[in-house]
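Researcher: Here's the sequence for the chain we discussed earlier.
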Amino acid sequence: MMRNLGEYSGERERLVFEVSEQFLRLVNKFAAVHGQPRDFGIGEKLYPSEIHMLDVMGENPDYGVTELAGIIGVTKGAVSQTVSRLESKKLLAKYRDPRDDRTVLFKLTEKGRIACRGHREFHHWLNHSILKRIKGITNRRIMEYLETNRIIEEFVDEMIGGE
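Model: Thanks. This is the structure I predict for it:
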């Protein structure tokens, strides 16, 4: 039995329910795909946390653990753990900041730069693949979709006590 929700009853309530269900399925599927390690052209698989850390390091070569943690939104401990894995895979090298010997900075190795380039190519392929699939959808409809997602995101932020 449907509850009487005024303007949200009937067809609109069904559509909102369908949006919620589809959104949840999409989030779960994206999380499953996003969590899989991938080879970005270096002959070994990297987890998303590793390749994204490399990307941030490549864009911010003069940043230490504290700054990287702030950019990525993780703890300094998480940065240190990921840095250790990346260093053991020969994707980055540590060095001391010439201005402050107490600060450790990072630079990508050639292997790390190749992985970052492969990651950018992967995202280019991903975006191009999505564009091909939505070619018949107008920009206006895409913008409406984005606005709907923004509203849902704000609601979810409220639910978790976020922004």
